[in-house]
Amino acid sequence: MSNSDVAKCPQHRLPEYAFIGRSNVGKSSLINMLTNHKNLAKTSGKPGKTQLINHFIINNQWYLVDLPGYGYARVSKTAKKKFQKFITNYFEKRQELISAFVLVDIRHEPQPIDLEFMEYLGINQIPFSIIFTKADKLKPKVIERNVDHYCQELLKTWEETPNYFITSSSKAIGRDEVLDFISNTNAEIEALR
User: Fold this and answer.
1) Cα distances (Å, whole numbers) of residue 98 to 23, 49, 95, 125, 134
2) Looking at residues 17-32, what average pLDDT do you find?
3) Whole-structure pTM value
4) Residue 28: which of 12, 13, 14, 39 has the closest Cα?
């Protein structure tokens, strides 16, 4: 199901996990890797491809929610404002949301827009994990150094480092870890019912 109105999101009471990040961070590739579908989420060389809230039901147990990227996108300012509004509406009003996954390209320095978005989630008490993407593009030592640097940057404003995963869509790195996290979280929710 795809739409831009939170009120029209699926009515099922299934847990939802939302994937979001800057445009071109590898979100569609990651979603395709996690679900083992080549074309579930449309990949594109052009940033700003996802422009709706996209719900994918997984094994009739939970929803994977693909949200538009924030930051650079070749769309008009009015369209961009509209995205931002329905993204914040989704995060602030959607009770089924269990956790967000904020995607960050592991090759880059911490970007202000990502840090601001995480801060927004923190202020609004929305649980989230970081997913570092494109790990196949770096050597293990560089990955370690970049993640450590990122964590140090976060600790300037956070009491503790958020949960994080290191992934590569082309090599399926991190797939099991992310899916296990979702599965274990769902089991915990189920146990509380």
Assistant:
1) 23, 25, 8, 11, 25
2) 93
3) 0.90
4) 39
